[in-house]
Amino acid sequence: MKKITVVLIALTLCLRVLAQEELRIHHINVEDGDATLIGIYDVATHHYKSTILIDGGASNPNDLLLPYLRTVMATHVNYVVLTHYHKDHYNGLLALKDGRLTADSVIDPGAEGGPAAMEVATPWLDVVKTQHHSRNFVSFGTAKTSIGHKLTLGTAGGLPVVLECVAGWGNTLNGQGITPDPKPQKSNANNFTLAFVLTCGQFRYFIGGDLGGKTESEYIDQETALISDFTKEFPVAWSWNHTTSASGHLCGFKADHHGSEHSNNQAFMNSLSPAITITSAGKQPSWHLPSPAYLDRLAQVSALSGNRGVYFTNLYDFAHTPSKSTADSLFSHRPQTSYSYGNAMAGQKSSYLIKVPTANLANKSAFQVYRVDDAGARMTLLAGFQCHGK
């Protein structure tokens, strides 16, 4: 009896330790561009076991990115990923060159060996040269073997945390294999974007850089192929009360290309039936993002969870493009909808944190979204979501 009691106590302590781990996703407000920090967080020690930073935003790294990182953890991460070669994604990552930001490994779409027509940023290539000598540098995308590559960040609550590359260099997983790049001589850097699905137990999340959602002069549609891939990988998910099911469901996603009219097509977003959507956009008047056309499409999406979260790092009204007014009219009084944007309070650049507890995550996905202010120092709960189960 004594031996059984000791074993039960040890098992209880082990389960308690596992339950103290969370998967956390920070969508950092860097004004223009994207910056996403993903980490496995130990609640007991207030320490991140493993971290990955995807993109760094357009602003000077000292202004927004690095202060946030210093507050929530440190300026060293295990992995840095650049999705593609546009300044609003790589500029904050230039801190790698002089050590203000450090990483064990750096992943980019393939800065060496790309076609001559590709738009490549010289400042980022300078970083690549320094990282080749001092870090484990990996180029995704140029080889199709990178598509479908799975990077395991560690475990949270005993569950593997996996980041799978589902698109890159114009090639896209489609459920049967890879849809090849339809425009090999493309020059729009958005079409080289790396896109990923993050999974931990029943939690699934999509981060697609500036992936395109329709084929036209400068863009290619990679989102539609992913519908088939997600349907194969996630064939069924049930609502929390087990009355409704969906195939291809993901718990949430960061909107592609900052909510541009060229991305986030209706079929793609509908297929995800996501509980939350986070759109990272800024104040650049020539971009006027997010586009009202995207916002109209987003308003038509239904969530498997019932309630929805619709979040923006920033919203502005531009000349001839009323992004903020459109979003307000669509979401501010919408039933069962949590709506927030990061420049709503004077003097603040609010970011968003998704906390995914690991208790019972093998069977059901539930999580909370927080607004994060004062460069990561203060958190306010916005909403909780009972997303889905097996």
Topology:
Blueprint: H1 2-19, E1 21-27, E2 36-42, E3 47-54, H2 65-72, E4 76-81, H3 87-90, E5 102-108, H4 122-134, E6 136-139, E7 150-156, E8 159-168, E9 171-173, E10 178-179, E11 195-200, E12 203-207, H5 223-233, E13 237-238, E14 245-246, E15 252-254, H6 266-272, E16 276-279, H7 292-299, E17 308-312, H8 323-331, E18 337-341, E19 351-357, E20 364-373, E21 378-389
Helix pairs in contact: 5-6, 7-8
Q: Could you walk me through the main structural features you see in this protein, from its secondary elements to its overall organization?
A:
The chain has 390 residues and is of the alpha/beta class. It has one domain (21-389): Metallo-beta-lactamase, Chain A. 20% of the residues lie in helices and 31% in strands. The chain has 8 helices and 21 strands. It has helices spanning 2-19, 65-72, 87-90, 122-134, 223-233, 266-272, 292-299, 323-331; strands at 21-27, 36-42, 47-54, 76-81, 102-108, 136-139, 150-156, 159-168, 171-173, 178-179, 195-200, 203-207, 237-238, 245-246, 252-254, 276-279, 308-312, 337-341, 351-357, 364-373, 378-389. The strands form 3 sheets. Strands 7, 8, 9, 10, 11, 12, 15, 16, 17 and 18 form a 10-stranded mixed beta sheet that branches. The protein has a 9-stranded mixed beta sheet with strand order 6-5-4-3-2-1-19-20-21. Helix 2 (65-72) links the parallel strand 3 (47-54) and strand 4. Helix 7 packs parallel to helix 8 (323-331). The longest helix is centred in the first third of the chain and has 18 residues, at 2-19. The model is unreliable at 4-15 (pLDDT under 50).
